Amino acid sequence: MEAKQVHLEKYKDHPRKKLASMTWSLDENIGKLIDKLKKTKQLGNTLIFFLSDNGGAHTNSSSNGPLKGFKSNKFEGVHRVPLKMD
Description:
- It is built from three helices and two strands.
- Helix content is 38%, strand content 7%.
- It folds into two domains: 42 residues, no CATH class; 40 residues, no CATH class.
- The protein is mainly α and 86 residues long.
- It has a two-stranded antiparallel ribbon with strand order 1-2.
- The longest helix has 23 residues.
- It is flat.
């Protein structure tokens, strides 16, 4: 996992600062992409998918909420991942 130093500073007190920093960077860059698609009138013909991998690990402070399980096993905390389509 790698993040820009400026983003790491922004999230220096976050328990998962690298992940938070990388997520912030993703959000910034998706915003740039959407702006470019609008400017070039391509947004209406574009699908943007946001997907997650299979659940949080048990070795960090990730949470699968009330679902049982974690990354690399067969329980519902692994198989229920978000999907958002715009």
